[in-house]
Fold:
Amino acid sequence: MIGRFQHLGVDPFNLASALNAVMAQRLVRVICGACAAKGCAACRGTGYRGRKAIAELMVLNDDIKELIATRAPARKLKEAARAAGNRKTCGMPPSALCSGAKPPPKRSTVSTSSSS
Ligand SMILES: [Zn+2]
Structure:
């Protein structure tokens, strides 16, 4: 993605100072839980039920910004991102936001009893 910006003639140093984080997102199909992709009434025979967004958030720290500014190869960027702990991916509904770098602390609130 950063390479694409550079392709547009954006100065990498300006880009690095303007960016705080990069989020990669893609949609994947979710396999039907009722039939495990074999096809059933619940999924109308498709084997899939809906889509899910998978996102990866890379928070840019000073190391990573410097690498971008100096046009470091993508491999080095990945190394730096990994060293900074930016390697978590998570599945989520498209409407939700998730932080790949730091999952929110789990709350110990009592879950409601099922009403079925
Ligand atoms: Zn199914």
The CA atoms of residues 16 and 62 lie 9 Å apart. The chain has a mean pLDDT of 74. The pocket of zinc ion is lined by residues 32, 34-35, 39-40, 42-43, 47 (CB under 6 Å).
